[in-house]
Amino acid sequence: MSFNDATIKLDKLYYSIGEVANYFDVNSSLIRFWEKEFSIIKPAKNKKGNRLFTQKDIQNFQLIYQLVKVEGYTLDGAKLRLKKEAKSETSASVEEAESAVQILESIKLKLLTLKNNM
Fold it and tell me: Domain 1-72 belongs to what topology?
């Protein structure tokens, strides 16, 4: 199975570097290089020192592959794009949290009103 297939079926907890390289139809050396270049790739290592990639790592590789190989970004450009996406996700999370706090405060006020009217 390669990245060029419509979907990659991820059904294991950990994948070897060879499996990841096969998914994306690239050399293992490119996987090691991208691991060093992009901080979002953090494989675990077993006692022998072999890299063990998670499904999240593979999803991050898909993002990097899309930006670099498909869309033609430079490595620096891809890093900037990923950093911008991370910031926008963080700000969206903050906005969602603030909205949730406002809703909870409104509910609290209604409950206190109900309590006082009893």
Answer: Multidrug-efflux Transporter Regulator; Chain: A; Domain 2 (1.10.1660)
